[in-house]
UniProtKB/TrEMBL annotation:
Protein name: Immunoglobulin V-set domain-containing protein
SUPFAM superfamilies linked: Immunoglobulin
Residue ranges of every copy of the Immunoglobulin V-set domain listed in the record: 29-130
GO biological process, any: immune response
InterPro entries: Ig-like_dom_sf, Ig-like_fold, Ig_V-set, T-cell_Activation_Regulation
Main location: membrane
Keywords: Cell membrane, Disulfide bond, Glycoprotein, Immunoglobulin domain, Membrane, Receptor, Signal, Transmembrane, Transmembrane helix
Species in which this protein is naturally found: Channa striata
Protein localization: Cell membrane
PANTHER family in the record: PROGRAMMED CELL DEATH 1 LIGAND 1, T-LYMPHOCYTE ACTIVATION ANTIGEN
Signal peptide: 1-20
Keyword Metal-binding applies: no
GO cellular component: external side of plasma membrane
Length: 159
């Protein structure tokens, strides 16, 4: 009898774990921006009052065809910049202040056309894991008033 009761309790715990699912959402599924501009990609995730930043993992990657690049990595609440891909070095601003509200805001600056692709963030806390992704499309700057540097690059690509 006692054993059955224990099993029942275990089941109830399991069910409440599953129904109180941890969710990760993107706030926008598609972003479009122009080269050299900045953009802020945003995700939301389930937070509980007891959620501590020490138990927080965030792993964001850019997927382009079969390759992936680490955009941002937060390990137990601490940013691990060493694992960030060279492509994003110094170009990703992470807003720590909105984490407590369950928001992940990544500002990518000086956008390049090769930043285009699928951005997937995996988030983990004591409550579970989840992920969601959005697409970013960076178009080449077409403004002829842009720097001559960009002009000569464009000239090359036109040939
Ligand atoms: C995620 O999206 C679903 C469906 O739109 C919504 O019900 C839920 O509250 C969202 N959760 C978070 C943490 O943003
Ligand atoms: C883009 O980001 C860079 C670096 O964070 C900043 O210096 C610049 O002012 C931003 N530009 C715009 C238009 O927000
Ligand atoms: C662009 O290419 C043309 C022909 O190759 C050349 O004459 C011109 O000087 C180039 N312009 C720039 C801005 O590099």
């Amino acid at each position: 009898m006692k054993l059955i009761f224990r099993i029942l309790l275990l089941l109830i715990n399991l069910i409440s774990c599953v129904s109180g699912t941890f969710v990760v959402n993107v706030t926008q599924t598609y972003y479009q921006a122009e080269e050299n501009h900045n953009i802020t990609l945003e995700w939301t995730f389930t937070t509980k009052p007891h959620t501590s930043s020490k138990s927080l993992f965030i792993y964001c990657n850019l997927f382009v065809e079969n390759k992936h690049f680490v955009v941002f990595y937060l390990h137990e609440g601490v940013e691990v910049s060493e694992s960030q891909d060279q492509q994003f070095s110094g170009r990703v601003q992470f807003d720590k202040n909105v984490l407590r509200e369950g928001r992940i805001r990544l500002e990518l600056s000086r956008l390049r056309t090769e930043d285009s692709g699928l951005y997937l963030c995996k988030v983990g806390t004591d409550d579970g894991w989840g992920s969601d992704s959005c697409r970013l499309s960076v178009t080449a700057a077409l403004d002829p008033a842009d720097t001559t540097d960009q002009l000569s690059v464009k000239n090359q690509s036109v040939k």
